[in-house]
Amino acid sequence: MNQLHASSSNLARDFGITDDRSLALFLKTLPGVDQVGAEARAAELATRSIKKESKSWAIDMAISMVDLTTLEGADTEGKVRSLCNKAHRPDPTDPDVPHVGAVCVYNDMVGIARTHLDSIGATDIPVAAVSTAFPSGRASMEVKLRDTRDAIEAGASEIDMVIDRGAFLSGHYKSVFDEIVAIKQECGTKAHLKVILETGELVTYDNVRRASYLAMIAGADFIKTSTGKVTPAATAPVVLVMLQAVRDFFDRTGIQIGVKPAGGIRTSKDAIKQLVLVNEIAGAQWLSPAYFRIGASALLNDLLMQRFKMRDGYYASSNYVSVE
């Protein structure tokens, strides 16, 4: 059997993994997910109500966690610059509104985003690039590595990579593991790595748990639900399973891995439900943009509208927020 890559071998050995066979055995012997229990728990947490003061805090926290995203074939330089302006000052009339967690774009727009953010004084907002043949992941390793390298050289400090779901579902776990290790090495100290599992194609919660562990052991800084191009995406039970995985991983290794749900989170109510999940399943130390992000585009507008309502007692006109 081929040995696991040296850069992740110490962590892998902590889990009793030394080669591709033991990797497969480890993943297959992870405790199964209680589907009924996970769905019931997620549904119960979704009914939690929070006080007005907590809601105000939650809305600002959610704004700070948004990876403000545009991933369309019709994206233009002007649209990306406008998105960066909004990321920096979500509400130009209210300086107390926090900036978002990151701006997420395709590789060819990374340089535009980074240059513009720097020019408006938003040097602390990272640019995230969707790489490795996003959203399908169907490309050679050479192409995926070059995709990652190009994004980092253009100014990306976060890389959102997609796993090869076909390989994973075929049981070729070592292949998926090695790709993550290689992309993580390419990131080095210049970029954090978010690994997209595309949970809508993984079929079962057991597979979501296995893919989460595989990504974390291989070196992911974040595990991400979806590309936003496949449904279902960031369902509450899936996010719950991933949050349980990062919590268990932390308890065992002391390494704190982030979680990024993406796809289908469009309203303030949706976002607050996510924060409740984080607090109850992973713990309060994940309630930070450093460890929890929400991939979204339309969500920010709704958060701003709800914030205005809580501040002034009525909803602003539709002109209050920009329309991307």
Please give a structural write-up.
The chain is an alpha/beta fold. The longest helix has 18 residues, at 236-253. The protein is 49% helix and 10% strand. It has one domain: Aldolase class I (TIM Barrel), CATH 3.20.20.70. It has helices at residues 9-14, 20-28, 35-46, 52-65, 77-88, 110-119, 141-154, 165-169, 173-187, 205-218, 236-253, 268-282, 299-312; strands at residues 66-69, 102-106, 127-131, 158-162, 192-196, 222-224, 258-260, 294-296. It is globular, with a radius of gyration of 19 Å. The chain has an 8-stranded parallel β-sheet. Helix 3 (35-46) packs across helix 11. The chain is built from 13 helices and 8 strands. The chain starts with 8 loop residues before the first helix and ends in a 12-residue tail after the last helix. Residues 1-6 have low confidence and may be disordered.
- CATH class value: Alpha Beta
Share of β-strand residues: 5-15%
CATH topology: TIM Barrel
Indicate the CATH architecture: Alpha-Beta Barrel
Helix fraction bin: 40-55%
The largest β sheet comes out as: 8 strands, parallel
Question: Would you tell me the overall average pLDDT?
Answer: 93
**Mass-distribution shape:** globular
Element string (H = helix, E = strand): HHHHEHEHEHEHHEHEHEHEH
